[in-house]
Amino acid sequence: RRRAFHFFAGKGGVGKTTCAPATALALADDGCSVLVVSTDPAHSTSDIFERQIGPEPVPLLPNLHGLEIDGEFESKRYVGEVKERIKGLFGHNIQKEANKQIDLAASMPGAEEMALFDRIGALVRGDDDRFDLIVFDTAPTGHTLQLLRMPDAISAWILALVRHRRALLEIDRGVEQSRAEAAAADPVLAALERRHERLTELRKIVTDRSQTSFVLVAIPERLVIEETARAVEQLADTGIAVGGLIVNRVLPDGLEGEFYRSRKAQEAVYLQEIAKRFSRLTRVVVQQLPRDVYGLESLSHVSAQLVG
Fold it and tell me: In the chain, which residue ranges form alpha helices assigned H by DSSP?
């Protein structure tokens, strides 16, 4: 079963957590089985849908589920799974020391980000096969780019560990083995090989434009335009092409007052610049609503603009 993935990214405060759920809602209304996932530590998806969403998928509406990935929760779950996997591999004293080392590693900086990345990877690889499409509401751009660069960084590290482990085994056993033979004979090497295979698969899916799209969300302001331009370049360096740009919170036409006219004139300049600098991207404009987007009624107004 082939799934599709939409990643929504952009500078903090531009409205990703409005646009991602609004897109998910529109696709669910169209008949797709959709999971909307928040990877931002400052989860707001629960607020948008006015119901509690946790670290496991919960039904929100027909065809629509929600999930908020919590780095701390995923880190603790991952540590528990690792400890369970090593049971029986070592004697009691060695296993006790191994558990201490695992707990120490889990407390180090970056452990929660790694666990978050693993959870995203499991969703992309299809560990939960109930959904046709997964919409990711990501953290601000810099954090998201770090996550997307992880496959390359971790793969290089794991391959170095694999080479080191194989060399140790050959020295210990005095015989050269094929990669498959070595992995079959050593559970540690087998685990490293599996992890590398999963990272390779994840990388392939995320960079496949027929399966995965990246949508940047921006607003017509100078700092946001500059960060969006950098994000396009940085994503390209990572091997990822941006599929579209949502220009959010554009002022409606026809209002009165000097303040409005001044802001509208400045906005027009920025909209022209966006059209010029991002001419290769499909762009969708979403107008500023008179009230905060909170609840299904206001979210449906954003959905209508996105799909219209």
Answer: 16-29, 45-49, 71-85, 92-106, 111-125, 141-173, 179-185, 187-206, 222-237, 258-277, 296-307
